[in-house]
Amino acid sequence: MMGGLDRENIWKLISIVELLIAGTVIVLDLFIPTIIILGIIAISLLIRKEKLQTLGFRKNSSWLNMVITILVLVVVWTLLHLSIFMPVLNHLTGTTQDLSAFENLKGNFNQLLFFLVLTWTLAAFGEEIVYRGYLQKRIQGLFEDTRTGIILAVGISSLLFGLAHTEQGTIGVILTFLDAIFFSLIKIHYENNLWAAIIAHGASNTIGLLGFFFLGPVYGLW
């Protein structure tokens, strides 16, 4: 019995160390944090003898219905960003989100393709594995998957996700923090299915990229 408790505590200690390392990588913006943490995840799964599926990759009884529902929710979420969140933050801070990374995207089809590939690989797939998959699973594991654990997992992982986007300025950090909450809620709604968060993330970014391509950077509707 004692040996079992010891092993459980050891795994929790290892999880804490992993979280501290991952958090440090994100806050210090070392190299490309998502890539580094994907490496940490590979090691973590290896020592635990777990498969990638344990991070939340689940089957769904109706993929088409899930995808359509998520796309509708993402459109509504995007409109909330443009009509409420962005304008309010713009007026409160006297600044706008730093979208300079996309300033040359308007009308540039080759750049659009490049960003679309990047958004569905490193962003949607990679970041969701890191933030809504790995980080949330490790945090929840420390609290036996209780409601407190779920709240802390969503809150901490979302804060780190926001801090990973400091290049977009204060408004960018806040907006991506809100996006992380949104992606987390979608994942939870679909029985912690990480695919739901990946689809939501990729769709959200795709709408934004298409907007930049046709209109240029948009900082709100008013």
Summary of the model, kept short:
This protein has 222 residues and is mostly helical.
Notes on the structure:
This protein is mainly α. It has one domain (2-215). It is 75% helix and 0% strand. Helix 2 (33-48) packs across helix 4 and helix 3 packs across helix 7.
End-to-end distance, in Å?
63 Å
Query: How many helices in DSSP terms?
Result: 7
Question: What is the typical, i.e. mean, pLDDT?
Answer: 94
Order of helices and strands: HHHHHHH
- Give the strand content: under 5%
Q: What composes the largest sheet? A: none
Low-pLDDT ranges: none
Shape: globular
| Helix content range | over 70%
Number of strands: 0
Structural class: mainly alpha
The domain count comes to 1
Gyration radius, to the nearest Å?
A: 18 Å
Keywords:
222 residues; mainly alpha; 7 helices
